[in-house]
TrEMBL record, chain A:
Residue span of region Disordered: 753-779, 807-978
Protein family membership: Belongs to the adaptor complexes large subunit family.
GO BP annotations, alphabetical order: intracellular protein transport; vesicle-mediated transport
Alphabetical list of Gene3D superfamilies matching this protein: Leucine-rich Repeat Variant
Name by which UniProt lists this protein: AP-4 complex subunit epsilon
Stretches with biased composition (Low complexity): 756-766
Biased composition (Polar residues): 818-830, 887-899
Endpoints of the signal sequence: none
UniProtKB/TrEMBL annotation, chain B:
Keyword annotations: Cytoplasmic vesicle, Golgi apparatus, Membrane, Protein transport, Transmembrane, Transmembrane helix, Transport
Swiss-Prot/TrEMBL GO biological process terms: cytosolic transport; protein transport
Membrane-traversing stretches: 12-35
Topology in membrane: Peripheral membrane protein
Subcellular localization: Cytoplasmic vesicle, Clathrin-coated vesicle membrane; Golgi apparatus
Species for this entry: Musa troglodytarum
Signal peptide: none
Record's GO cellular component terms: AP-1 adaptor complex; cytosol
InterPro entries: AP1_sigma, AP_complex_ssu, AP_mu_sigma_su, Longin-like_dom_sf
Function noted in UniProt: Subunit of clathrin-associated adaptor protein complex 1 that plays a role in protein sorting at the trans-Golgi network and early endosomes (TGN/EE). The AP complexes mediate the recruitment of clathrin to membranes and the recognition of sorting signals within the cytosolic tails of transmembrane cargo molecules.
Taxonomy, superkingdom: Eukaryota
Quaternary structure and partners: Adaptor protein complex 1 (AP-1) is a heterotetramer composed of two large adaptins (gamma-type subunit and beta-type subunit), a medium adaptin (mu-type subunit) and a small adaptin (sigma-type subunit).
Name of the protein: Adaptor AP-1 19 kDa protein
């Protein structure tokens, strides 16, 4: 009876009119109460109550079908609000079996919303979908196809595939369209399963219904993305379709805001951009229609601008054409300027910035006239716009503006909370800094400030930043160690003491990322006491703090203990007594008992070192020798005299390992290694009797234990640069690789003993002057940098910024010589430094600038390509596409198909569908012609001449040299300031 | 009845449609969401696979991101390496970063115009109580994350055909006597 009442209410609601017929009062109340809910918690309570009642009622026997439909909709509602309604899924699946379309649709809708494509229940639906795909009612077929798009997974594709393919020829266009989309989805899910059906897409492109044709562009876009070359024959068809769309040959229904089928145009432009990319011939066909669209496009509506933007993307992607690039640049400036006039058109500004980013890849000069607009966008309160502008700046970074750009980026990075974007922008900064760093000191400053931001980015770097930043950290250490050059020790030590100062300050910060702590420890250990400003115990105390205050990992601890060891060693070598701080002693004790063998070893090494004589210590860890190469004397020749002596005294000569094969000596340090290399087969012969070990071995062994203790730790950082995890390895590897670990040290000793290097700590007073000489930052950029942050918004400021961003040509000439002066140290480590490459590059780029023509896009092929340099591509094109028969390079069949193609679109408007079959079959020929296509014949015939592909490639390289923004071409922006 | 959402609004332009967050997965569009100004979810459609938990997170993050944006800013936001285009009471569509944002914006407007035509100047109430119909319409416009139909007329015709079929079906099975007999 109660049900009757609700039905009555339902009817009352139904008669109330409005859109929401057929729903119970209950449901309306529910929706209303959700709408009135003041908080998420309240909403959750309501929905949970609802779910409980649904769970009960949906399981009742004999729920009326219409009632069940409403329950299902209520479940959809609950799921939409983020709650789990999985208990009802099976009822939704059942509902898809219903005969009534209304219920079936509801069932399909619910199922597509509920189930992911790997859900167990899918298998229960496949049968229904199969049945429905065969239905006479096209609406049921549509519903089934929509569901298939979402639900059919890789396993179940074969079950429905034949039917879907059949539906491609269904009389109803709505069905054909959905069948195309379903097939596309299947292709996305499992390309292999539908690969034999791809020709169907080509056929559907010639469908009479523009909707089906438009839908077919989606799969074709995917296919062409995957394999451009197989679809080159379609270029002409796409161009003719686009042309007709632009000429409004499609039914009016496809117009949108006075634009002719803009969505189809955009899709076609995307496809043409792919097909024309790097292909001069294909691009030639496209130029004409692009020019048309540029002319016709309404830039007053959003959609018109969307099409224009897509045109710009297309122009920047295909083989460059000067006229089109001009048109694109003009549209871009319209985007950017429109924003200046109407403040609300942020969207256009955004697109303008993006378009600019695409165009400067081809011609960096485009950016010039928009300097101020770009600066405006950079200072815009809108984050989206700002980020886009940073992306643009990143693309146009050169050696002349890198400082300003990176500074800006870092400022922005510090100011935002978005971890994802922080990571991205941080890695970009690093990349730019390494690529373009104007001077070493700047690089360090940069790195220091960059590391500052690590504090706020701990998490980011844990997940994303490590790969990039480990390298950065090591580069930074290397830079501090190597300094500016051999002739400038003063500047080096000044740099080092400033690094020490700033790091000691930074250590006060509460949270520091481990990578940064490693750098700090290393620098403090190496240079902490070098200038005499800080006492050894002060630095050691700080280093002990590092291991305690920061919850640091083993790597940091290892760095810290090694640093302490170095400082102790320097002290001992200098003849001062080292008194152990209690916290240091407890650290050593703690680490000696550590689970990490690496830490243990380091702790023991330190303890051993403290007992050594000062001379020994000095040769073990010489001062400031981190840049020295370690030469390993594998023959141990320096021991010859000692061996000789012992033999003379009656010791037994050394028996090489091979001759002793099979003998294991536990006391022998190399046993481990031997064990690895000896065969793994079991040995059946008896063990030899233990012999007293040969006398010469005895001193060796004692040395060996010593050595492994003392292998200087700073060096390991060099070896492990790219492989931090295996920090310990080098010691073991090096020792086990040649069977003479022990001698390692001695070789090292010899090398390091050189007195010249201990003199490196020079006085600070003289160094200051020299540094001034080295920090050659030119006045312009310094000034602008300095003032940059003071008064934003002032036009003059912006202009300055613009000047520093777009071309500080004044400072450039001064800068170049200094950067070349900075000759790298002639040691192997420097070879990898970015600085070296940079030092050379200005000269190269100068040469290149002299030899290659100015970046005029028209002249691209001029010096190299001999094939078609003087012919205007536009003229060629017009010849191709215009009404006159194509040039003689195209043979007849191409021209006929070309003439036929335009008719295709006329079908949509003029011809009745019945008469279309003959023409579309003719077109079918065109599209299936890829195998023996006239185009295919055509291509090789052209290739017979002077090879156009080669010259094309040469063009590309010539362009790359002269025009790309990364090419360090100093002339490009010179006249900007003037 | 309290009028929660007082105005019937012109959807396009100064919109009073709560947020549809549309974003598409893997394909062109990852998903579409509609959220209200108060952050209430009105419609969600996921074209790329998202677990229920992820969905809640996405909605929470995006509503935080989009609802706090001031007026007159871009209709686009970058979000976790994707781009989300939103418009008119927060229809949001999530796309890949290199897609044409303005086109997506117009797809939203296209959708809204079709809703408008269907409901006769649509207001938020229509979408609240007839969200399933909004889903049906969306299914005719976007399929598997791609725009399948750009003609408003075609979409309207199909929806009308479905509705009329549903109506006739209702008349057959849904007469009062029928219902009462079922209920008993």
């Amino acid at each position: 009876m109660e049900q009757l009442k609700t039905i009555g209410r339902e009817l009352a609601m139904g008669s109330q009119g409005g859109g929401w017929t057929g729903q119970s009062k209950e449901f309306l109340d529910l929706v209303k109460s959700i709408g009135e809910a003041r908080s998420k918690a309240e909403e959750d309570r309501i929905i949970l109550r609802e779910i409980e009642s649904l769970r009960r009622r949906i399981a009742e026997p004999d729920v009326p079908r219409r009632r069940m439909k409403e329950y299902i909709i209520r479940l959809v509602y609950a799921e939409m609000l983020g709650h789990d309604a999985s208990f009802g899924y099976i009822h939704a699946v059942k509902m898809t079996h219903d005969d009534s379309l209304s219920l079936k649709r509801t069932g399909y809708l619910a199922v597509t919303l509920f189930l992911s494509d790997d859900h167990d229940l899918i298998i229960l639906i496949v049968n229904t979908i199969q049945k429905d795909l065969r239905s006479d009612n096209y609406l049921i077929v549509c519903a089934a196809l929509t569901a298939a798009c979402k639900l059919i997974n890789e396993e179940t594709i074969p079950a429905v595939l034949p039917q879907v393919v059949d539906l491609l020829a269904h009389p109803k266009e709505a069905v054909r369209k959905k069948a195309v989309m379903a097939l596309h989805r299947f292709y996305q899910r499992s390309p292999a399963s539908v690969s034999h059906l791809i020709s169907n897409f080509r056929k559907r492109l010639c469908d009479n219904d523009p909707g089906v044709m438009g839908a077919t562009l989606c799969p074709l876009f995917d296919l062409i993305t995957a394999d451009v070359n197989s679809y080159k024959d379609l270029v002409i068809s796409f161009v003719s379709i686009l042309k007709q769309v632009a000429e409004r040959r499609l039914p009016k229904a496809y117009d949108y805001h006075q634009m002719a089928a803009p969505f189809i145009q955009i899709k076609l432009l995307k496809i043409l951009a792919l097909l024309g990319s790097g292909d001069k011939q294909a691009s030639g066909h496209i130029y004409n229609v692009l020019g048309d669209i540029f002319r016709k496009c309404e830039s007053s509506s959003n959609i018109g601008n969307a099409v224009l933007y897509e045109c710009i993307c297309c122009v920047s992607s295909i083989y460059p054409n000067a006229k089109l690039l001009d048109a694109a640049a003009e549209s871009t400036s319209k985007f950017l300027k429109a924003c200046l006039l109407f403040s609300e058109s942020h969207n256009l500004k955004y697109l303008g910035i993006d378009a600019l980013g695409r165009l400067i890849k081809i011609n960096p000069d485009v950016a010039e006239e928009h300097q101020l607009a770009v600066i405006d966008c950079l200072e815009d309160p809108d984050d989206t716009l700002k980020r886009k502008t940073f992306e643009l700046l990143y693309k146009m970074t050169k050696s002349t503006n890198v400082e300003v750009i990176v500074d800006r980026m870092i400022d922005y990075m510090i100011s935002i909370n978005d971890n994802h974007y922080k990571t991205e922008i941080a890695s970009r900064c690093v990349e730019l800094a390494e690529q373009f760093a104007p001077s070493n000191q700047w690089f360090i400053q940069f790195s220091v400030s960059n590391n500052f931001t690590f504090q706020t980015m701990n998490k980011v770097f844990e997940h994303a930043g490590d790969l990039v930043n480990v390298r950065v950290a090591h580069n930074l250490m290397r830079l501090i160690a190597e300094g500016f050059g051999e002739d400038d020790e003063g500047a080096d030590s000044q740099l080092r003491s400033s690094a020490v100062n700033s790091y000691l300050r930074i250590l006060g910060e509460p949270k520091l990322p481990s990578l940064f702590l490693q750098v700090i420890c290393w620098v403090l250990g190496e240079y902490g006491t070098a200038d005499g400003k800080y006492s050894a115990s002060y630095i050691i105390g700080k280093l002990c703090d590092v291991t305690e205050a920061h919850l640091c990992n083993d790597t940091v601890k290892a760095y810290a203990i090694s640093a302490i060891m170095k400082i102790c060693a320097f002290e001992i070598a200098a003849g001062r007594k080292v008194e152990m701080l209690p916290e240091c002693q407890s650290l050593i004790d703690e680490l000696s008992a550590s689970h990490s063998t690496d830490l243990q070893q380091r702790a023991y090494e330190l303890q051993a070192l403290l007992c050594l004589h000062s001379q020994a210590v000095e040769s073990v860890i010489p001062l400031d020798a981190s840049c020295e190469d370690i030469e390993v004397d594998r023959n141990l020749s320096f021991l010859d005299s000692f061996v000789q002596q012992s033999i003379e005294k009656g010791a037994r000569p050394y028996i090489p390992e091979i001759e002793r094969s099979g003998m294991f000596s536990v006391s022998n340090y190399t046993s481990q290694h031997q064990h690895e290399t000896s065969s793994h087969t079991l040995r059946f012969e008896a063990y030899e009797l233990p012999k007293p070990s040969p006398t010469p071995a005895a001193p060796q062994i004692s040395v060996s234990t010593r050595t492994t203790d003392l292998v200087p730790v700073p060096e390991t950082t060099y070896y492990t640069e790219n492989n931090q995890a295996s920090k310990l390895q080098p010691v073991l590897d090096a020792s086990s690789a040649d069977h003479g670990i022990k001698l390692h040290l001695v070789g090292v000793q010899k090398k390091w003993g050189r007195p010249t290097y201990s003199a490196s700590s020079s006085t600070t007073s003289s160094s200051e002057k020299k540094t001034n000489g080295v920090t050659h930052l030119d006045g312009v950029s310094l000034q602008s940098q300095g003032t940059l942050y003071d008064s934003k918004g002032q036009q003059s400021e912006k202009q300055k910024l613009a000047a520093s961003l777009f071309g500080a040509s004044a400072g450039k000439t001064e800068k170049k010589p200094t950067s070349t002066q900075r000759a790298p140290k002639a040691n192997t480590a420097t070879a990898e430094r970015p600085g070296v490459a940079r030092a050379v590059s200005p000269e190269i780029s100068k040469q290149k600038a002299a030899s290659s023509p100015p970046p005029d896009l028209l002249d691209l092929g001029e010096p190299i390509s001999t094939t078609t340099p003087t012919i205007d591509p536009f003229e060629q094109l017009e010849g191709l596409i215009g009404p006159t028969p194509g040039p003689s390079t195209l043979d007849n069949s191409v021209t006929t198909s070309e003439q036929k193609a335009p008719d295709l679109m006329a079908l949509y408007t003029d011809t009745p569908p019945s008469s279309s079959s003959s023409i579309s079959s003719g077109l079918g020929d065109l599209h299936s012609a890829d195998k023996n296509s006239p185009m295919a014949k055509n291509v090789p015939s052209i290739k017979k001449g002077p090879n156009p592909q080669d010259s094309l490639q040469k063009d590309a390289t010539a362009r790359h040299v002269g025009v790309t923004p990364t090419g360090n071409n100093p002339n490009l922006f010179r006249d900007l300031l003037g | 009845m309290v009028r929660l959402y007082p105005n019937r609004c012109q959807l396009v332009g100064s919109a009073f449609i709560s947020g549809f967050l549309i974003s598409l997965v893997r394909s062109f569009i990852h998903f579409v969401i509609l959220i209200s100004r108060q952050g209430k979810v009105r419609l969600t459609k996921w074209y790329s696979p998202y677990q229920q938990k992820e969905r809640s997170t996405v909605i929470r993050e995006l509503s935080g991101l989009i609802l706090t944006r001031g007026p007159k800013l871009c209709n686009f936001v970058e979000w976790k390496g994707f781009k989300v285009v939103y418009a008119s009471l927060y229809f949001c569509i999530c796309i890949d970063p290199d897609d044409n944002e303005l086109e997506i914006l117009e797809i939203i407007h296209h959708f809204v115009e079709i809703l408008d035509r269907y409901f006769g100047s649509v207001c938020e109430l229509d979408l609240i109580f007839n969200f399933h119909k909004a889903y049906y319409i969306l299914d005719e416009i976007l399929i598997a994350g791609e725009l399948q139909e750009s003609s408003k007329k075609t979409v309207a015709r199909l929806i009308a055909a479905q509705d009329s079929l549903v109506e006739t079906a209702k008349e057959e099975t849904g007469s009062i006597s029928n219902m009462i007999s079922q209920a008993m």
